[in-house]
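Example 3.2
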Amino acid sequence: MTSPPSLTGAGLAGALGHEAADKRLDILRRIGQVGSISEAARGADVSYKAAWQAIDTLTNLAGAPLVERTVGGSGGGGAQLTATGLQLLEAADTLAALRRQALAQVALRHAPADGVAPRLAGLGLRTSMRNQLPCQVLALQRAGRAMQVRLGLSDGSTVVSRVTRESTELLGLAVGGEVLALAKATAVTVVTAPATGVATVNRLHGTVARLARSTAGDEIVLTLACGLQMVGFAAPGLQLKVGQAAVAVFDDAAVVLAVGG
C-alpha cells in the first residue's frame, strides 16, 4: 500500500498564497465538517459548480488530492478530506494566526500620521502582471454566462472586468468591496486617441512617463490621472514622447481580479 502524497513546501505556498482572497479554504473546511460537497457549497453560499472549481484549483496548487468522494452506501455517499487536505487546513490556520499578529504589530508601530494606511495585503501578491490597480467595486452585472464587474479608481475613472460567475462567488465580490485589477502589459495598447467605432471597453487617460523604443512597438509607462502607473505597448511608428497625453485601451476579458485579506 502506497503512502498518500505529502504536501511539499511549494504546494503549501501555492495553495495558501491567497488564503484570505477567496472562499476556497472555507469550502474545504466545510467539506471536512459536513462530509458533503453540496452541503459545503450551501454553507459557503456558493454554487455546487463553484465549490468543485475551488477544490480543483486547490488540488492543482497543492499538488496532491485534498478530497476523497465516497459513492453509495446507506448514507448515499459523500466526501471527506484526505490527510493532505487536513494538513493544508492546519497550515492555513497557523499562517492566518501569524499573519494577523504581524499586521497588528506593524499597525501599532507605524500608525500613519496622515491617516492613510498602506495596502499591506496587496504586497504579498506575486504575479507577472505589471499592471495592478487598486479599485472599488461599483457594480456587478450578468453578461451571458459571465459577470461584468465595474470598478472605480480613486479619480472616478472606471475599469470593467469580465469574469465567470463562479469566480465572482469565490472572491466574494460585492459593491463597495476593495479589489486589485490586474492586466498584462501585452494586453494593453497605448494610443494617442482611441479609434472611432472600436468597441474596446476600457480606456484610461494618462501622460507618458517613460518609454523604451523598439522596432516591434514601444513599451510605454503612463501616469494615469489618479497617479497610478499603467504599462502597455504602442504600435510601431507611433513615436510617442515623454509628457505627451495618451490613452491605454484594453478589453474587459484582459482584467483579472484579486482580493486581499
